[in-house]
Design brief:
- The complex is a heterodimer of chains A (about 475) and B (about 450).
- Chain A has 15 helices and 18 strands.
- Chain A is α+β, with helices and mostly antiparallel strands.
- Chain A folds into 4 domains: about 90 residues, 2-Layer Sandwich (Uridine Diphospho-n-acetylenolpyruvylglucosamine Reductase, domain 2), CATH 3.30.43; about 120 residues, Uridine Diphospho-n-acetylenolpyruvylglucosamine Reductase, domain 3; about 110 residues, Alpha-Beta Plaits (2-Layer Sandwich); about 110 residues, Alpha-Beta Plaits (2-Layer Sandwich), CATH 3.30.70.2740.
- In chain A, a hairpin with a 4-residue loop joins strand 17 and strand 18.
- In chain A, helix 1 runs antiparallel to helix 3, helix 8 packs antiparallel against helix 13 and helix 13 runs antiparallel to helix 14.
- The longest helix of chain A is centred in the last third of the chain and has 20 residues.
- By secondary structure, chain B is an alpha/beta fold.
- Chain B is about 55% helix and about 5% strand.
- In chain B, strands 2-1-3-4 form a 4-stranded parallel sheet. Chain B has a 4-stranded parallel sheet with strand order 6-5-7-8, with helices on both faces.
- The chains are: A alpha+beta (about 475), B alpha/beta (about 450).
- Chains A and B meet through helix 2, helix 9 and helix 12 of A and helix 4 and helix 5 of B.
Chain lengths: ~475, ~450
């Protein structure tokens, strides 16, 4: 980046909203993904859509890469500035602009913390369900750009199910307004869906309107422990087959239970092989019926013990423990590399079994937790980036997990995104024609490839493994 | 070409900062909302725990050039350790920042004036209780002689940075030190009192009340004579060796199997005392004694609760007339996990209604001598803290540490609220409330 371009950015956002010291450039060189790091040339904090449009125009003219970054909690190296350039922050665009109680929407700037949205609307008797585990830290702009999921996805869906309207600055600096506070809208292609989960590769989202729903009257939380992973997985399938759609149906294996207990000290049993965390919300009568039925199903499927949370606080503690699972696993080894391969719910038991076999086959320590009810698991390799031989085995294990997930009708990523990390595997899921269509879209909108370059599309696709499963 | 300073700094980081501890951080960012400087800088990642750990690693690996901005990032850390309980991965941030400060201290060229200040502070005043007492005598003389009034009048203090002026205004009035006789009564519980260098001089009254209350609750109090400053100030400033020199002196002073507890009434000191064991675990001579010492260390609130003070307070009853709130001592909360005990005492204090302060668990900006070294950031953090205080309008803000006490009092004066409220040490608060209740009853 030339001194001249830097001066231009400074003149747009003001000196106080530019970060360019040694320490700052290093501090914005990473996100929550292990083993990916690259320094930006400059970090800016614009204050409005107009400022962002001006910034993008300069980037387009000077061909400077732009990476939009919320709080940097991405798990697929999606916000690492791998090609250098400019990082755009939203810490100055963090206002809740409007709650519309007649249309049940909230309009926000991208820098608002997800948890703050939840707290705010809940104090108004309303509900914004998507709750990624990092919701206390992550920004809504990041959630929309990654189409984040969460613990309540089973019943309430993911971020894309709640985006009603947005303002986007396109790669040429033009501003586009999409959607509206509408229940129905079929005017042309569904462009808004294109930007949700685009990981900042098509434009910069600068304002978002989200759908809200009434806050459920009551909720109840239960837990069940099992002495085998399969029993827990089968319980999940049995609950869905019994026509219950709980809010939350979360899974943790023995390794994860141990790590969470180490952090939270809440008395989780360390000898259990697996644990399910179940929650239902709605009217009191139905909540009571469903939670009792889920407990019964767990017992029928071999749960060694079950319990109901005695209060909201106790339920909150259990969910906090589950949300901290990934980070808590980092206690065990220097490096944690996680996946979020997702399969149809009915295949969850097969997937769990396959992960166990892969762990043994490659001699890699894998702990698994995740949104079992969504078929979205988070097998996490506990390893050490400094051990080259082990890292090679980890890569092979992860590749095989992707392979199996696709074989079972699943995908390489359910909610964390492709980023730089999974780009080499995207074609496995999409096929050659899928990649071609996506590249055509990218090319037509961002011909200079300035929006988050190096993400989503890899230079080359990994060779698909030939696997003799279980032999 | 790598400069000589850069090389020396990198070598120092390699030598002093533990790579394994750095690797514990997986950069999830769960620490961010807990960090006061991250929030006070409008979310500047280079002033967050995750950012600082990344910078420590980058210094070690040679990925960043040592300059003022890197130094600033480390210096700006309060050392409040609020990131530790927030960290699911169990990163030992406190150890890492202490190691970093040692690494920087060893490799950095220091100006002659800073050297002199460090020497007086760490080898002089805070290493020797007599010198501390002498220093305090000066303050005492200054207050009693009328000089304080005079200097305030002629604006002598205008010559100093604004912070010094504000600090001067909140210095507690020092009582003349009375000779203390160790009380020896038959009791089931023998408690050694760690009187603390500041607490024993500037806050002598509080110490007297601490002893009186413990005796009232039936404990036998012993005051080992040769005790010294705990060494926390040294440890947090990259002078860990000197901190351990003080620690060893204290281990000798408290070397007795007789004590059930070693009690302190300053959160910052208490946390450091409770970590003697960890700091000296590899010391062949002191490891065992240090572990024993740390195990017996207890803060005054926890000991009060153990001795049944909550029940006694409950019995006293009385109408809830004024509002009291509590500002946590960071180290008492984040290092020792003590936050329920002081609250339960305040909730049951006769004559008061307890209300929780917004973000009571986040640092007030005092942080040892941070408010002297980083006055601007300390002020920003204090101002944010005072917003909650102003909103609540309590009559009393209770604290558990001398630094926090002075900082909160300064906050109250900055806001011009000194007529409506005051900051009080928890022991003084309880002592006075009980006396009030008993004289009324």
């Amino acid at each position: 980046m030339t001194v001249h371009s830097k001066d231009l950015f400074v003149s747009i956002v003001g000196k106080e909203n530019v970060k360019d010291t040694q320490a700052q450039l290093l501090a914005y060189s990473y996100d929550a993904t292990a083993n990916f790091q690259a320094k930006p040339d400059l970090v800016v904090s614009p204050r409005s859509t107009e400022e962002i449009a001006e910034i993008v125009k300069i980037c387009a003219r000077e061909q400077i890469p732009i990476v939009s970054r919320g709080s940097g909690t991405n798990l697929a190296a999606g916000t690492v500035p791998s090609k250098g350039g400019l990082i755009v922050l939203f810490n100055n665009m963090d206002k809740i602009l409007e709650v519309d109680k007649e249309n049940l929407t909230i309009t926000v700037q991208p820098g608002v913390i997800t948890q703050d949205i939840c707290n705010f609307v809940e104090s108004n008797g309303l509900f914004y369900p998507p709750d990624p585990s990092s919701m206390k830290i992550s920004t809504i702009g990041g959630n929309v750009s990654e189409n984040s999921g969460g613990l309540r996805g089973l019943k309430y869906g993911v971020t894309k199910d709640y985006v009603k309207a947005m303002t986007v600055v396109l790669p040429d600096g033009e501003t586009l307004k999409l959607g509206g506070k509408l229940a129905k809208d079929v005017a042309g292609y569904d462009l808004m869906s294109l930007f949700v989960g685009a990981e900042g590769t098509l434009g910069i989202i600068t304002e978002i309107t989200l759908k809200l729903i009434p806050l459920p009257i009551s909720k109840k939380t239960g837990i069940a422990y099992f002495n085998s992973l399969e029993a827990a997985a089968e319980t999940v399938s049995a609950i869905i087959a019994d026509k219950i759609i709980p809010v939350t149906l979360e899974f943790m294996d023995k390794g994860t239970i141990g790590a969470v207990e180490d952090f939270m000290k809440i008395g989780l049993p360390l000898d259990a092989e697996a644990m399910l965390l179940m929650e239902q919300d709605g009217n009191e009568e139905q909540v009571e019926r469903d939670i009792q039925q889920m407990i019964r199903i767990a017992e029928l499927n071999g749960a060694t013990s079950t319990a109901l949370a005695s209060s909201n606080e106790e339920a909150e503690v259990l969910k906090t423990g589950r949300r901290a699972a990934l980070s808590a696993l980092a206690r065990k080894r220097p490096t944690t590399i996680l996946e979020d391969a997702t399969v149809p719910r009915s295949e969850i038991a097969n997937m769990v079994k396959a992960i166990q076999q892969i762990s043994e086959k490659y001699d890699v320590q894998i702990s698994t937790f995740g949104h079992a009810g969504d078929g979205n698991l988070h097998p996490t390799c506990l390893t050490d980036v400094r051990d080259e031989d082990e890292m090679l085995r980890v890569e092979q294990a992860l590749a095989e997990i992707f392979h199996i997930a696709i074989e079972l009708g699943g995908t390489i990523t359910g909610e964390h995104g492709v980023g730089e990390m999974k780009a080499p595997y995207l074609e496995w899921k999409l096929g050659e024609s899928g990649i071609r269509v996506m590249k055509a879209i990218k090319q037509s909108m961002d011909p200079q490839n300035i929006m988050n370059p190096g993400k989503m599309f890899a230079k080359e696709t990994k060779m698909r493994l030939v696997i003799n499963n279980g032999q | 070409m790598v400069s000589e300073l850069q090389q020396r700094m990198q070598d120092s980081f390699v030598e002093h900062v533990d790579e394994e501890l750095l690797m514990d951080c997986m950069r999830c960012g769960f620490c961010l909302p807990a960090c006061p400087t991250y929030l006070a800088t409008n979310q500047d990642e280079s002033h967050s725990p995750r950012g600082r750990i990344a910078l420590m690693k980058a210094m070690r690996d040679g990925d960043v050039v040592w300059d003022g901005s890197v130094e600033d990032s480390f210096d700006m850390c309060l050392g409040c350790r609020a990131c530790e309980p927030a960290c699911p991965a169990g990163v030992q941030y406190g150890v890492l920042i202490e190691e970093t400060r040692v690494a920087v201290q060893q490799a950095k060229p220091i100006s002659i004036t800073e050297k002199a200040i460090r020497k007086t502070t760490f080898d002089g005043v805070f290493a020797d209780q007599k010198k501390m007492a002498a220093g305090v005598k000066l303050v005492q003389f200054y207050q009693k002689s009328g000089l304080q009034k005079a200097t305030r009048k002629i604006g002598f203090l205008n010559l100093f940075p604004p912070f010094m002026k504000q600090m001067e205004a909140v210095l507690p009035t020092i009582e003349t030190k009375k000779k203390r006789e160790p009380v020896l009564k038959p009791s089931s519980l023998k408690v050694a009192f760690f009187s603390g260098c500041l607490m024993d001089t500037l806050f002598q009254e509080t110490n007297r009340k601490t002893i009186e209350m413990l005796e009232w609750l039936g404990a036998d109090i012993v005051l080992p004579k040769e005790q010294q400053c705990c060494g926390a100030l040294h440890g947090h400033s990259g002078e860990m060796e000197k901190g351990m020199r003080n620690a060893k002196a204290n281990l000798k002073a408290f070397d007795s199997d007789d004590f059930d507890y070693i009690v302190n009434n300053a959160g910052g000191c208490g946390a450091f005392l409770s970590e003697y064991g960890k700091h000296l675990e590899k010391d062949p001579q002191f490891a065992e004694k240090a572990a024993e010492f740390s195990r017996k260390t207890i803060d005054i609130s926890s000991l009060f609760v153990k001795l049944g003070l909550t029940a006694k307070l409950k019995q006293m009853g009385g109408a809830e007339e004024s509002l009291v709130t509590y500002q946590d001592s960071c180290h008492l909360r984040n290092v020792n996990g003590v936050f329920l005990e002081p609250r339960s005492l305040l909730q049951d204090t006769p004559g008061f209604e307890y209300k929780e302060l917004i973000d009571a668990g986040s640092c007030c900006g005092s942080a040892g001598i941070y408010n002297i070294l980083q006055p601007e950031m300390a002020k920003r953090i204090l101002d944010a803290k005072m917003k909650g205080v102003k909103e609540m309008q309590p009559a009393i803000v209770v604290t558990s540490n001398p630094g926090c006490l002075m900082q909160m009092q300064m906050g109250i004066q900055n806001e011009g609220l000194e007529k409506e409220m005051k900051a009080v040490h928890i022991v003084d608060f309880l002592y006075d409330a009980i006396h009030q209740n008993q004289t009324q009853g």
